[in-house]
Amino acid sequence: MPVTIDKTLEQMETKDDEYIYWPGGRMTSLFPASTNGDYHGNPIAAIVLTLLAVLTIAPGCIHAFLPDGGAGVIAGLDLSQNGTTIIGVFAWVGATQIVWGALMLLVSLTYRSFVPLFLALILIERTIIALNQWIFKPGEAAHHPPEAYATLAAIPIVLLMLALSLRRRETREVGDAAV
């Protein structure tokens, strides 16, 4: 394939086997070809990962963009002492949630061969969060934010989806095609 460096931004093409051309040079495609054909786990695991992605991005947006990050109005935290620090930490966590959720969404829709890995990472993340929220660092108040309960509910679901994603689908052959 011939390489043309003098393309304008309007002439850029982004096919799976081509490069993205930038003025003054080139860079390989930001998103490689889909790996969905290599995924042999249960499709429901990828669908649940999509749902988990949305349920990660939404609170991330709340934490990043709500004036108090949801610390007071949702989590019920007292912001009278160190309020700006708490709000800042919520905003920081929200930014990481948005990025993590976007990666989860990308994997669930385009790179499904990574679904088992992402479900395993989510399981580790949620387990650490639950241990900290309920055992190691439960806080002084009896109140727990909604995420504390959502995490407890998510752990067995993620574990089940991980098992389903690792289980190869049965295929049966009909004529020359596998179904």
Molecular structure report:
The protein is mainly alpha-helical and 179 residues long. It has helices at 43-65, 83-109, 115-136, 146-166, and strands at 20-22, 25-27, 173-174, 177-178. It has a two-stranded antiparallel ribbon with strand order 1-2. A two-stranded antiparallel sheet has the order 3-4. Strand 3 (173-174) and strand 4 (177-178) form a beta hairpin. The chain is elongated, with a radius of gyration of 22 Å. The chain starts with 19 loop residues before the first strand and ends with a strand. Mean pLDDT is 85; it is low at 3-12.
Round the Cα radius of gyration to an integer and report it.
22 Å
Instruction: Work out the number of β strands.
Output: 4
Q: Into which percentage range does the β-strand content fall?
A: 5-15%
Mean pLDDT: 85
Count of structural domains: 2
The helical percent reads 40-55%
Basic shape = elongated
Give me a quick take on this structure.
The chain is mostly helical and 179 residues long.
Which keywords apply here?
179 residues; mainly alpha; two-stranded antiparallel sheet; elongated
Strand-helix topology:
Blueprint lengths: L19 E3 L2 E3 L15 H23 L17 H27 L5 H22 L9 H21 L6 E2 L2 E2 L1
Antiparallel strand pairs: 1-2, 3-4
Helix pairs in contact: 1-2, 1-4, 3-4
